[in-house]
Specification:
The complex is a heterodimer of chains A (463) and B (462). With 463 residues, chain A is mainly α. Chain A contains 16 helices and two strands. A two-stranded antiparallel ribbon of chain A has the order 1-2. By secondary structure, chain B is mainly α. In chain B, 72% of the residues lie in helices and 0% in strands. Chain B contains 20 helices and no strands. The radius of gyration of chain B is 21 Å and the shape is globular. Classes of the chains: A mainly alpha (463), B mainly alpha (462). Chains A and B meet through strand 1, helix 5, helix 6 and helix 16 of A and helix 8, helix 10, helix 11, helix 13 and helix 15 of B.
């Protein structure tokens, strides 16, 4: 079983190594070779990840830990635990197995779709290299048995997502949007990293077994007290909010649609956007330990669902409409996870909701261009617009309807708020320091100091 | 007598000096490049043998050791847990800098000063005694000064003079010569380290150097983080807690500040300079926390940062060779013309911020872990720094390589020497990222040795 468990992670790693090495040495593979490699890797990984639960069912085990030993280990000689270690562990349980299978199935479907969709696209090789990094990140995060391993997968998903959004790199808009998403992801990564380190300190290890107990998910019992669970849980919630585009980070989701349709479909509509919810599910025993945390999680989920419903009703392009529809469901899934504090069965509901929603949304995204064509054909055939279902705004009182419509059109002003109150002050403060530094350098050098931005054409000595 | 017992360390230091003598007579720049490559390559091989000898426990040099015939048996030059892997690292950085020098640049690139600098830096990293170390640290600041004096060395020169004065005063105080109270030694040495590491407000010399000097020379000068070495050898064994706390606080502020500045820069060289400052400060933060985990993380990060930032710097230098100074004001769209450089730029940049799969990942984890145990706020600041540096790197990548399409009739593709240099660095970064244990253990031993030296430090005179 260990070999199969390792193969599930090793397969996408091999694809990353293959495509990455080919790129690095300047000998990219042909389209056919990339297609074949992707297919075999997906098949091998999917078979491996499916075989493990088959063994589990046969043996009656519900929680299998594949421990590959310590990646890094040394004795600190003192302190609470006396040694530092970074374990590489993968966990197969009721949570990780369905999510890993989902990742393989959806990535496999999209790979098959993209082989045709991206045919003769100049960035074909780049697309599949980033796709492989994404798959590796998803599978690593899904099967992670330690929070550090989960963090590694989390970061791989973030990087590949941001670079895929900036995939069409001959225009500035995708690059700007890719950077926007990357900034949000970095904030999310920072929150997760702090949570991981704090947990490591509280428990002495980052292993989920140690942190949540050896009982199978979701019956784990956290090894930390309620206040500690709240502190760490809030950090995890912040991380999940960034990754799953919960309020106030929701602005990045429609921006993510700049990428190629296959990546939009599988990443932001189905997998990446659910990774935050998965993180909360994985650490759901922490939610079980703190009522305040549970209220925060459920509240943020409901708020996001409401926000997505209002904003989504005013979207005019299909990808944005689908992304907000997706966000609405993610909000509900997060609310269910919060509700699991009182009714633990809701954690199963959230997992099933997540799986079903991811599959449905992938189909909708992939079919979106055809749907538009069908819609147009129908309208042409009947000679008039098809009737549209009344949106949520129609039921709002007259006095607030216009305001709500404006709110929806501006996507809740979330981007504007972040830009005006975070980004601009940040840039202004540091540009001010930059200007003062240039003055200081000029003063020290007697007027021969700092040059302006590279735009100034002062001859410099290269070399 | 085994092969490893030969005086490889002395040879590694002497060879670049011999190279200087040879290349100074060569008129043909291509021949000078070949000589320089051979000499820096041979120096690298010697340092690798030094490392191998150290690992095998073979006493270095024997009767040919410079300590015997030059220093009367005193342990002036030597190798220990700290310096054993740093020596090949320093030699490698010089070798790849020469290797990646484009043909277009070889007429203007000063191979002699680079080799002179390499010799001084290798001697510095092998130096165990305080006064010779002071002399070497001061001397190693000279090549960049001489190279740029006609363009005005005001900012750089001023800082280096300040550094040398503080260092000399600090070590004098440490010696108890009577002029300066011994209790001032750690303050003076701490101030010297702040200047040499480019901690705010003494950081502008790094900007000045990158702004006006040859990129290759500057890179070879700053990338090994010589100031950090001075901190480990001279300051850490003697500094009381409050001095380390003060330096740590300033270094932490520098790390966050420089990371923020890197995000908003509109010039590629200044972006790189701030990125370097932020990382150098992070290494210093880890050292000043002086717990075994944070020290191990800092020493590991030192190696990772030196490799990654050299890779990033060489990529920028290669781009500058083709396009001149690079602005980060608008999208340049260079990917289609230089896809390999784009990939190397991104990988090296991400490696510098400790991205998973790279050498810096474990180092960053260790550093954050050590920082959180010292003080959660320090941990938060370190994480914030890493986040900002990551944003700065990807922003620079997107601005330089995407967002448009750069059109040119001239090929901008990477040359085989550039590719070889960058692949060598990336192989180490990614290989070390996959199998980090041996480096971490080596850095852990060095950290233990440093902590041991602090444990037996002399009480300051009252």
């Amino acid at each position: 079983m260990t070999a199969l468990g390792v193969l599930a992670v090793a397969a996408p790693a091999a694809l990353v190594a293959l495509l990455g090495a080919a790129t690095l040495i300047g000998a990219p593979l042909s389209e056919a070779a990339i297609g074949r490699a992707s297919r075999w890797v997906i098949v091998a990984g999917l078979l491996a990840v499916s075989a493990v639960p088959a063994f589990m069912l046969a043996t009656g085990e519900r929680h299998v830990v594949i421990d590959l030993g310590n990646w890094v280990e040394f004795h600190t000689g003192h302190g609470q635990h006396g040694r530092y270690h970074f374990a590489v562990k993968f966990v197969y349980d009721r949570l990780s197995v369905p999510f890993a299978i989902l990742s393989y199935v959806l990535c496999g479907t999209i790979a098959a779709f993209a082989v045709k969709y991206m045919h003769r696209e100049p960035g074909y090789n780049r697309f599949f290299a980033l796709y492989a990094v994404f798959l590796l990140g998803m599978v690593t995060a899904a099967l992670a048995g330690t929070i550090e391993t989960l963090f590694a997968g989390w970061e791989l998903v973030g990087l590949s997502s941001a670079l895929l959004i900036a995939f069409f790199q001959s225009r500035p808009a995708p690059s700007r949007n890719g950077l926007h998403v990357w900034v949000v992801y970095r904030a999310s990564d920072a929150a997760l990293l702090v949570a991981a380190v704090v947990l490591h300190h509280m428990v002495g290890e980052g292993d989920f077994d140690r942190l949540l107990g050896i009982e199978p998910w979701p019956r784990g019992r956290p090894a930390v007290a309620a206040p500690q669970a709240l502190a760490v849980g809030l950090l995890l919630l912040a991380a999940a909010a960034g990754k799953s585009a919960l309020v106030p980070f929701s602005g990045w989701l429609p921006r993510a649609m700049e990428g190629p349709t296959p990546s939009s479909a599988v990443f932001y509509g189905a997998l990446s956007v659910h990774l935050g919810a998965y993180l909360l599910l994985r650490l759901s025993p922490l939610i079980g330990a703190s009522t305040v945390l549970a209220v925060a999680v459920a509240g943020l989920g409901l708020l996001t669902a409401l926000y997505a419903q209002i904003v989504g009703s005013a979207q005019t392009d299909i990808k944005s409409a689908l992304s907000f529809a997706s966000l609405g469901q993610v909000g509900l899934i997060v609310a269910e996870i919060g509700g699991g504090h009182w009714v633990p069965f809701l954690w199963y509901v959230a997992l099933v909701h997540l799986l079903g929603h991811a599959c449905l949304r992938t189909l909708q995204f992939v079919r979106a261009p055809n749907f538009l064509q069908d819609h147009r054909a129908l309208e042409n055939a009947i000679g008039e617009r098809l009737p549209r279902p009344p949106g949520l705004l129609r039921f709002a009182p007259e006095s607030v309807r216009a305001w709500l419509y404006r709110f929806a059109l501006e996507r809740g002003y979330l981007d504007a708020l972040l830009t005006d109150y975070v980004v601009r002050p940040f840039v202004a403060v540091f540009r001010w320091f930059d200007a003062r530094e240039r003055q200081w350098m000029n003063l020290l050098s007697g007027g021969r100091g700092a040059s302006g931005p590279a735009a100034d054409a002062a001859p410099k000595k290269p070399g | 007598m085994t092969l490893l017992a030969l005086p490889w360390l002395e040879l590694a230091i002497l060879l670049p000096l011999v190279g200087v003598a040879c290349v100074a007579r060569v008129r043909d720049v291509r021949l000078a490049l070949v000589w320089c490559l051979a000499v820096t390559g041979a120096a690298l091989a010697c340092t690798l043998l030094v490392w191998a000898g150290f690992r095998a426990g073979v006493p270095a040099g024997g009767r040919w050791s410079a300590n015997e015939w030059l220093f009367g048996g005193r342990a002036v030059l030597g190798v220990d847990d700290l310096s054993a892997p740093l020596l090949p690292l320093v030699a490698l950085l010089h070798f790849v800098t020469v290797l990646a020098t484009a043909r277009k640049k070889i007429a203007r690139f000063s191979f002699t000063w680079l080799m002179a600098g390499e010799s001084l830096r290798l001697a510095t990293f092998a130096c165990l005694a305080p006064w010779p170390l002071v002399a070497l640290l001061t001397l190693s600041a000279l090549p960049p000064y001489v190279e740029r004096r006609e363009r005005g060395a005001g900012v750089y020169g001023l800082h280096m003079v300040l550094f040398a004065v503080l260092l000399i005063l600090g070590v004098s105080a440490l010696d108890g010569s009577g002029l300066i109270p011994r209790s001032w030694a750690s303050v003076l040495l701490g101030a010297a380290v702040l200047v040499r590491c480019g901690v705010v407000p003494f950081h502008v010399w790094v900007l000045d150097l990158f702004d006006a000097d040859s990129f290759g020379t500057t890179l070879a000068y700053v990338a090994p983080l010589t100031g950090v070495y001075a901190a480990v050898r001279l300051l850490l064994p003697v500094a009381p807690e409050w001095v380390l706390d003060g330096i740590g606080l300033l270094a932490l502020l520098t790390a966050v500040y420089a990371a923020g500045m890197a995000v908003v820069q509109q010039d590629a060289r200044r972006f790189f300079a701030y990125l370097f400052l932020s990382h150098a400060a992070l290494v210093l933060v880890g050292l000043q926390l002086h717990t075994v985990v944070s020290l191990t993380g800092a020493l590991d990060l030192w190696v990772s940062v030196a490799l990654a930032l050299t890779g990033l710097g060489l990529t920028l230098r290669a781009l500058e060779t083709r396009l001149g100074r690079l602005a980060l004001t608008g999208f340049q769209g260079l990917y289609d013309e230089t896809p390999a450089l784009a990939v190397y730029f991104l990988l090296a940049g991400l490696a510098s911020v400790g991205f998973p799969g790279t050498l810096g990942f474990v180092a960053a984890e260790l550093l954050v872990d050590g920082a959180v145990s010292a003080n959660p706020l320090v941990g938060l600041a370190v994480v914030l720094t890493a986040a900002l540096n990551g944003i700065a790197v990807v922003r620079a990548y997107l601005v330089l390589f995407t967002g448009g399409r750069y059109r040119t009739a001239v090929s901008l593709t990477i040359t085989w020497r550039e590719r070889l240099a960058l692949l060598t660095l990336l192989a180490l970064i990614l290989g070390g990222g996959l199998i980090p244990q041996s480096l971490v253990i080596s850095r852990h031993r060095a950290a233990e040795a440093i902590l041991q030296s602090r444990a037996v430090r002399p009480e300051p005179a009252r």
